[in-house]
Amino acid sequence: MPFRAPKVISALKRFFSEKNAVAGVSDAFLIVTVINSVMMVTGLDTPKEGRFAYVHLLLRLGILTGIWFVFYFSYTITSTKEFFRDLQAGIGRYIRHNVYDAIAITYTSLVVLLCVAGSTGLFPLHGGRVLYQGLLLLFPAVCMGILVTKVLGKKDEPKT
């Protein structure tokens, strides 16, 4: 299959056209975290160590959420309510209809869980280069999981 620029541009537009505030914050967090992790692994930035590494990631998410909330207050409230209504219809259905948003939201959720475990000391997580390599490996793993869920998930039945 030859490379087709319009298909790539269309995919990028779908990725960056979030349906709700949760997806918008998650998109921004995913992009910043992956870029920052590449910088940490390649040595362009010094990897954070210990609990500070996890607190740093949570602070980044808090700052992005705060910025989004300040600039898009009413949209944030209404779209977040709609997001949770969509989830009540079923997570699998949400994933099938919002693949790009599901990738970003799942990645962000898993990183938050990791950060809570690392910053509270529940598990002996030390941060450093290994953390950022793990964050980079988590991204394709989440992509594969979401795509498998989309492909193998049950299809929506047409309403009659």
How can the largest sheet be summarized? none
What's the alpha carbon Rg, rounded to whole Å? 17 Å
**Helical run tally:** 7
Oligomer: single chain
So what's the overall shape? globular
The total domain count is 1
- Straight-line distance between termini: 38 Å
**Low-confidence spans:** none
The portion of residues assigned to helices is: over 70%
Strand content: under 5%
SSE pattern, N- to C-terminal:
HHHHHHH
Extended strand count:
0
**If you average the pLDDT, what whole number results?**
86
Strand-pairing-aware structural class? mainly alpha
Index terms:
0% strand, 160 residues, 7 helices, mainly alpha, single chain
SSE layout:
Elements: H1 5-16, H2 21-42, H3 50-71, H4 73-88, H5 91-97, H6 99-120, H7 128-152
Keywords: Membrane, Transmembrane, Transmembrane helix
Transmembrane segments: 21-41, 53-78, 99-124, 130-152
Please tell me about this protein's structure.
By secondary structure, this protein is mainly alpha-helical. The protein has one domain. Helices cover 79% and strands 0% of the residues. The protein contains seven helices and no strands. The protein has helices at residues 5-16, 21-42, 50-71, 73-88, 91-97, 99-120, 128-152. α2 (21-42) crosses α7 and α5 (91-97) crosses α6. The longest helix is centred in the last third of the chain and has 25 residues, at 128-152. The model has no long low-confidence stretch (mean pLDDT 86). Keywords: Membrane, Transmembrane, Transmembrane helix. The chain crosses the membrane at residues 21-41, 53-78, 99-124, 130-152.
